[in-house]
Amino acid sequence: MNLPNKITLARICLIPLMMICLLVEFSFYPEPLQWGTFSLPFNQLLAALIFIVAASTDGIDGYLARKHNLVTNLGKLLDPLADKLLVTAVLISLVEMGKLDSWVAVVIVSREFAVTGLRQIALLDGSVVAASNWGKLKTVIQIVAIVALLINNFPFVFMGIPFDQIAIWAAAVITIYSGYDYFVKNKHLLRSSKA
Question: Which end of the chain is less congested by CB atoms within 10 angstroms, N or C?
Fold first, then answer.
């Protein structure tokens, strides 16, 4: 259990804390932050901060593992699992809160499961499906879109720009395309798995 794996486990442990902040109503939460007609419940702000911290640890654990030659099989399993758990948990929470259409969550989560399945086939074949540039872009845009939804489109709400909706649509489109890209570039794995 090296440092990168501990960071990954910490990311997983932050997920239920984030969901509690989003979905459980506590009387001790401070009043919502108000700025004119803009309102942001304190629990959403807290959940957004937890999400940002959790998402940022993804790059940190990978960097440390590569820099200090601490890449382990456990890390290879936990890191993508932690990422998918984090995104899936917050998307489902946003659907529950009425801030996200369920079909968007289904599309994004389905793509994540499909690419995970492809990676499992690759492992059985003795190869690795590396993260593509489209996959990395997908992750960044998903994080930006989720944060925008969590903070009620601040500060774009004051400019009349529906940035949160634009970002989540962009995330859905790039998520679909990046999944397609993975399967096209690794179709040989699907052919070999039939044998």
Answer: C
Helices (DSSP H) in the chain: which residue ranges? 3-23, 42-67, 73-96, 102-124, 133-150, 163-185, 187-193
CA angle, corner 181, sides to 7 and 121, nearest 5?
A: 65
Instruction: Output the pTM of the full model.
Output: 0.91
Task: Measure the CA–CA gap between 107 and 119, rounded to whole angstroms.
Answer: 18
Task: Write the CB contacts of 89 (distance below 8 Å, at least 6 apart in sequence).
Answer: 15, 18, 19
Render pLDDT for 67-95 as a digit per residue (tens, 0 to 9).
999 988 788 778 888 989 999 999 999 99
The residue length of the chain stands at 195
